[in-house]
Specification:
- By secondary structure, this protein is α/β, with parallel strands linked by helices.
- It has helices at residues 28-41, 64-72, 87-96, 102-106, 110-116, 124-127, 131-141, 144-152, 180-185, 188-191, 224-227, and strands at 8-10, 18-21, 49-53, 79-83, 156-158, 162-165, 200-203, 212-213, 217-219, 231-236, 239-244.
- It has a 6-stranded mixed β-sheet with strand order 1-5-6-7-9-8, with no helix packed on it. A 5-stranded mixed β-sheet has the order 4-3-2-10-11, with no helix packed on it.
- Strand 10 (231-236) and strand 11 (239-244) form a beta hairpin.
- The longest helix is centred in the first third of the chain and has 14 residues, at 28-41.
Length: 245
């Protein structure tokens, strides 16, 4: 069973520009650069703007804890920010809730996350050779505000013309019937289906060398943690503009 029932947000942005940011994976340096580029791009646009981050803020890159702290802080002036969840956040919470093992969590790249909190993933199993004591120590060492923030994240943002989601959708089902599991983990059934998508789906989850742009699908995951490229899409007045760190 999932550790958290995820909220599904609906939003009518009107004429408000939306900036979507792909998978961050512990690259706090790139996140700061991306937000600065967004602020500069929006400098001449009056009114409120919205940033939507597409999940997978943690693991693999060096600064998971710093990324979470950044996203918990207020957004830039005149911006709102919505952070949706990715599969890495869900698996982290599943570990905290005792639903996955330490070994399975480490296979997600969580060793880098532990280091960002000042914990040594190689020494800890030697200090706590029993799984119960190891898990208890790690769970009590992770900051409660960070855990609560990750639990609060919605699983998608649905607008009249665009759906923002981490992994994608099952094209055979309407949006209101999508499972949380598919929304954060789906790949092949989403990519290979010949059924038209109901609207533009902006997602991450599956890294690509460059952003993947299709008529009804936009993949912004460009493997930031190893490529050094964090991709942003500006969606405004029916047009899409892409830029990178």
């Amino acid at each position: 069973m999932p550790s958290t029932i995820r909220q599904r947000l609906t939003l009518d942005p009107g004429d408000m520009p939306i900036y979507a940011i792909g998978d961050i994976h512990g690259r706090h340096d790139l996140l700061k650069k991306a937000e600065q580029a967004i602020v500069e791009d929006a400098a001449d646009i009056p009114g409120r703007k919205l940033i939507v981050t597409l999940g997978d803020y943690i693991d693999r890159g060096p600064s998971s804890a710093q990324v979470i702290s950044h996203l918990m802080a207020p957004p830039p002036e005149n911006f709102d920010r919505v952070c949706i969840t990715g599969n890495h956040e869900i698996v982290m919470l599943d570990y905290v809730d005792g639903l996955v093992s330490y070994a399975d969590w480490m296979r997600m790249g969580a060793d880098a996350l532990l280091r960002s909190y000042g914990l040594d993933p190689e020494q800890l199993p030697l200090i706590f050779p029993g799984a119960a004591k190891l898990d208890a120590f790690i769970r009590q060492s992770l900051p409660r505000p960070h855990i609560d923030f990750l639990r609060s994240l919605p699983i998608f943002v649905d607008t009249p013309n665009v759906l923002f989601v981490h992994a994608g959708i099952d094209p055979m089902l309407p949006i209101e019937h999508q499972s949380d599991d598919d929304l954060v983990f789906i790949r092949q059934r989403f990519f290979e289906s010949h059924k038209p998508l109901p609207k533009l789906v902006v997602h991450g989850h599956t890294p690509a060398e460059r952003p993947e742009v299709f008529a009804k699908r936009l993949n912004l995951d460009t493997g930031a943690y190893y490529s050094g490229k964090l991709t942003v899409a500006k969606l405004w007045r029916g047009r899409v503009h892409l830029f990178q760190t």
